[in-house]
Design a protein that fits this description.
It contains twelve helices and nine strands. The chain has 263 residues and is an alpha/beta fold. The protein has a six-stranded parallel beta sheet with strand order 3-2-1-4-5-6.
């Protein structure tokens, strides 16, 4: 598989800023969807959230379940400063210098105060991804990042996911096909031009470490792809060099294509 080096991510969450963006909404912040979206980009090796957790105790369980390290920051009236912002910046810069294997820094906040941090990280040859609420994100921060993801777009992407258009298969296989199609859509969002079978499975395993195609009744991942091709869910071809499968079309594209199945 001729693919670029896999990205390694460090995620830093300014939770107070995110909570402010949600204060007029009924729904809770869904960290699991955020993590799932970021796992499409690479392996997450650091996950830290900063706040006075006494104020946000109702969120701590879901954050712990997502294996996020909660950094306790004193309330502002005790320090006179925004200690969460300062601690986040110090920790991010420390990792930037001490952990060269971390290629991408993700800042969950819409606060323009993080713009100097973003600039310094990019100066250190790190990719910086911002993530925040549309109405609570500074234009300065948004435009200073290499990429900015709006939380609302993550929620919309999930609701717009294609249903598995296949009949006559059991629930297990339907689940396998759904995972496959969701992963292909995720790789397309990341502008992956060539969808090698190894890349597809690696992305699935990153998001679902327990995934095993044998659970769904397949001897190997290639057999899963072949079955999906027979159901017109994907269109397959083979790499000319090593003969591994490549997905060229999927979902509604594969249904409409006159060239179906394997080559």
């Amino acid at each position: 598989m001729k693919e670029e080096q896999q990205q390694t991510l460090a995620v830093f969450i300014d939770f107070e800023n995110l909570a402010l963006g949600l204060k007029d909404r009924k729904e809770r912040f869904q960290i699991e969807r955020v993590i799932a979206r970021l796992l499409e980009k690479g392996n997450i090796v650091v996950k830290r959230a900063y706040a006075d957790w006494g104020k946000f105790a109702s969120y701590t369980t879901s954050l712990h379940e997502a294996a996020i390290e909660l950094i306790e920051i004193p309330i502002r009236r005790m320090t006179g400063k925004n200690s969460a912002d300062m601690r986040l910046c110090v920790d991010a810069m420390d990792l930037s210098y001490s952990k060269p294997h971390i290629t991408t820094f993700v800042i969950l906040s819409g606060d323009s105060d993080f713009s100097p941090l973003v600039s310094k990280l990019r100066e250190n040859d790190k990719q910086v991804i911002g993530l925040g609420m549309k109405e609570a994100t500074s234009v300065l921060l948004r435009d200073n990042c290499d990429e900015f993801i709006f939380y609302e777009d993550i929620l919309r992407e999930e609701t717009q996911a294609e249903e598995v258009p296949v009949q006559g298969v059991d629930d297990k296989k339907k689940e396998a096909f759904r995972i496959l199609l969701e992963t292909l859509e995720a790789l397309r969002r990341e502008n992956r031009e060539t969808l090698w079978s190894a890349l597809i499975k690696m992305t699935i395993k990153r998001k679902r470490p327990s995934f095993n195609e044998s659970y769904y009744g397949y001897r190997n991942f290639s057999q899963l792809l072949e079955d999906a091709a027979e159901k017109n869910l994907v269109t397959l071809t083979r790499d000319a060099a090593n003969r591994t499968y490549i997905v060229t079309q999927f979902g509604s594209e594969a249904e409409k294509s006159p060239k179906r199945g394997r080559k």
